[in-house]
Design a protein that fits this description.
- By secondary structure, this protein is α+β, with helices and mostly antiparallel strands.
- The chain has 8 domains: 3-126, no CATH class; 129-201, Nucleic acid-binding proteins (OB fold (Dihydrolipoamide Acetyltransferase, E2P)), CATH 2.40.50.140; 216-285, Nucleic acid-binding proteins (OB fold (Dihydrolipoamide Acetyltransferase, E2P)), CATH 2.40.50; 300-373, Nucleic acid-binding proteins (OB fold (Dihydrolipoamide Acetyltransferase, E2P)); 377-460, OB fold (Dihydrolipoamide Acetyltransferase, E2P), CATH 2.40.50; 468-539, Nucleic acid-binding proteins (OB fold (Dihydrolipoamide Acetyltransferase, E2P), Beta Barrel); 552-631, OB fold (Dihydrolipoamide Acetyltransferase, E2P); 639-690, no CATH class.
- The chain is 27% helix and 30% strand.
- The chain has 13 helices and 30 strands.
- The chain has a 5-stranded antiparallel beta sheet with strand order 3-2-1-4-5. It has a 5-stranded antiparallel beta sheet with strand order 8-7-6-9-10. Strands 11-12-13-15-14 form a 5-stranded mixed barrel.
- β7 (230-235) and β8 (238-243) form a beta hairpin.
- The longest helix has 32 residues, at 634-665.
């Protein structure tokens, strides 16, 4: 090898070219092509100059050695080396810096590229790398698959790895497939790029769901499983909730039949805060049925008979599907008879013929009837049935005012509480009957047009008032039960259906009773005397004090006016005191008659003497006074003074008449005496009139 070849560094690519184009094996075409490539890389000016310059240096010996040597370089390679060397010398000259030996490059492979080539190659390499931004979704290509991981190329300086379980929804992935990738981190602590396919699908799914919701589009979803109150649906990889009420327009009893099915849905609600999505399949069905409903309602007429299916049963009625529109049969329109629950008449999914009773186009409500398709039971009621007949029936409804008795399905009569017993005191129907009781009653009224009937139970027993005068004669004594109190007396029951009143004034001869509750209590037994019988108004006047003799006949002789008796104050109030006297009788002392001789008043529970100042047998009243024991009656004293004044007046008149007689006999010289006398007489007369 020549010295020139030793001094010239061999490029990396030249070795490959040399290996492929040995002089012995190279064809003319190959040599020609190589030469053309060299010319493309070398500027034209440099080539011409180098050829002239080097032509002087290179001798024929070197060329012969190059051609003859089995591993010698070709002329094109040598020219390329010369060009590279020239470029390096030019760069050093431009920098005007003396060339120094590069000790750092010692032992390293020499780079044969120029600065421009190096820059060009660096740009190509840089452009081949993608600009990666974290927390964004980009496209990636699968370049490797293992049991645990999937290698993804996103055009970055290194590939990323995604766990294989994120592709469980699509186990058929293969190398070369394009997938969405979410960049979590460009580089972790170990230099590995962190990627996620699951998050990329989730973010894209949310964008898609929001778009669907805004545009009100219809989407497909996969029903994964059942949950409380509905189903879980996979929509674009996101779990959405399908409420049970939004599955279908009719109630669904078995949700499991929809699991593992793909269905169409509408997104009806999105909660971005809690990442919740609610979908509905019912909304699609309702849109389809809306037109059908409008067409059906437009054709409806009252009295029209249609066929429907019982889709829902509630406590108040049954909803019937009429083929796109729903109607309600109220519980009262299911049967002519009384029922407790619609399930007694109708079953779910049962086909029924119903009649349209009424409908509202605006509110889209349709009232249906079932019992109207059968004849009314009142129309088939026996024509021989009349007032006074006995009938049997069952108690179906109880109220405070009475009971409804069903004598036939759909035919009921009311038994008022007053017709259940001859008793007159207030009671409720629950005291006599219970729902479900089988009873016998008498028809009291019957109105076939209004379909009303009233029944009576007490008419089956004899009326106790029919022979009341014979059984309860005046002044006869009986025992009765206290039933009720009023302010004016006590209502008692002598027997079932026979009540009477004891007036408060007929309870006691001697005691003053303000309210009957002071004398007895409800439920007690009391002895009574019949005072009067009013058969027409079914009334008895009773008395209790009449069981004893009237003690006031005796009191009249004992408590005479001005008689003095010892008494005890049992009640003291503003108007006076109630005083208990002997023989159990009570008297009243007004407050002004309670004053003692020392100026104080008689106190409560104090025992002292009282004078009777008034006695009334008719009013059973005794008026007492303690003050009269030491003070004279003002009325008597006034009457005495009046008598004395009258006597003095008469005496004064007689004196005046005598004086007048004397004056007439006097002379004119006695005028002054006369005037004074008349003044004195006038004063005396005036004082006499006052008295």
């Amino acid at each position: 090898m020549s010295e020139l070849e030793k001094d010239t560094p061999e490029p990396a690519e030249s070795k490959e070219v040399t290996a492929q184009t040995n002089t012995e094996n190279a064809t003319p075409e190959v040599v020609e092509n190589t030469h053309e490539e060299a010319e493309e890389l070398i500027p034209q000016e440099v080539v011409s100059e180098e050829i002239v310059t080097e032509g002087e240096v290179i001798d024929e010996v070197i060329l012969e050695e190059t051609i003859e040597a089995p591993f010698a370089k070709s002329a094109e390679e040598m020219e390329e080396e010369i060009v590279v060397k020239q470029e390096e010398e030019e760069i050093e000259a431009e920098a005007d810096v003396p060339v120094e030996f590069d000790w750092d490059a010692l032992g390293k492979k020499q780079d044969s590229y120029s600065v421009s080539e190096r820059t060009k190659l660096e740009d190509i390499y840089t452009n081949s790398l993608s600009s990666i931004v974290e927390h964004e979704v980009i496209d990636g290509t699968i370049v490797g698959i293992s049991n645990r991981e999937v290698v993804i190329n996103i055009g970055y300086k290194s590939d990323g790895i995604v766990p294989f379980n994120e592709f469980r929804y699509n186990p058929d992935i293969k190398i070369g497939d394009k997938v969405d990738i979410y960049v979590e981190n460009q580089e972790d602590s170990s230099g590995q790029m962190i990627l996620s396919h699951k998050k990329a699908r989730t973010l894209k799914s949310w964008d898609r769901i929001n778009e669907v919701f805004d545009k009100d589009e219809i989407i497909n979803g996969y029903v994964k499983c059942r949950t409380k109150g509905g189903l879980i649906v996979d929509v674009f990889g996101i779990e959405a909730f399908l409420p049970g009420s939004q599955i279908d327009v009719k109630p669904i009893r078995d949700y499991d039949i929809y699991v593992d099915k793909t269905m169409e849905f509408k997104v009806v609600k999105i909660n971005h805060e809690y990442k919740n999505v609610v979908v509905s399949h019912k909304a699609l069905i309702e849109d389809e049925l809306e037109q059908q409903r409008a067409e059906i309602i437009a054709k409806l007429e009252k009295g029209q008979v249609l066929e429907g299916i019982a889709k829902n049963i509630t406590t108040y009625g049954v909803f019937i599907d009429l083929g796109g529109v729903d109607g309600l049969i109220h519980i009262t329109d299911l049967s002519w008879g009384r029922i407790k629950h619609p399930e007694e008449v109708v079953e779910l999914d049962q086909k029924l013929k119903v009649v349209i009773l009424d409908f509202d186009e605006n509110k889209k409500r349709i009232a249906l009837g079932l019992k109207q398709l059968t004849p009314h039971p009142w129309d088939s009621l026996s024509a021989d049935l009349k007032i006074g007949d006995k009938v049997k029936g069952k108690v179906v409804v109880l109220a405070d005012y009475g009971a409804f008795i069903e004598i036939a399905p759909g035919v009921e009569g009311l038994t008022h509480v007053s017709e259940m017993s001859w008793s007159q005191h207030l009671r409720t129907a629950q005291d006599f009957l219970s729902v479900g009781d089988e009873i016998e009653a008498v028809i009291l009224t019957l109105d076939r047009e209004e379909r009303r009937m009233s029944l009576g139970m007490k008419q089956l027993a004899p009326d106790p008032w029919n022979a009341i005068r014979d059984k309860y004669k005046v002044n006869s004594k009986h025992k009765a039960t206290v039933r009720n109190f009023t302010n004016f007396g006590i209502f008692v029951e002598i027997e079932e259906g026979v009540d009477g009143l004891i007036h408060i004034s007929d309870l006691s001869w001697s005691k003053k009773i303000k309210h009957p509750a002071e004398f007895t209590k409800i439920g007690d037994e009391i002895e009574v005397v019949v005072l009067d019988v009013d058969e027409e108004n079914r009334r008895l006047s009773l008395g209790h004090k009449q069981l004893e003799e009237n003690p006031w006949d005796v009191f009249e002789t004992v408590f005479t006016v001005d008689s003095v008796h010892q008494g005890t104050v049992i009640n003291l109030h503003d108007k006076g005191a109630l005083v208990s006297l002997t023989y159990g009788v009570e008297g009243f002392a007004p407050m002004r008659h309670l004053k003692k001789e020392d100026g104080s008043n008689v106190k409560a529970e104090e025992t002292t003497d009282f004078k009777v100042i008034e006695f009334s047998k008719e009013n059973k009243k005794i008026i007492l006074s303690h003050t009269r024991l030491f003070e004279e009656d003002p009325k008597a004293a006034k009457a005495k003074d009046n008598k004395k004044a009258v006597a003095e007046g008469q005496k004064s008149k007689r004196a005046i008449s005598k004086v007048n007689e004397k004056v007439e006999k006097t002379t004119f010289g006695d005028l002054d005496i006369l005037a004074n006398l008349r003044i004195d007489l006038a004063k005396e007369e005036k004082s006499g009139k006052k008295k």
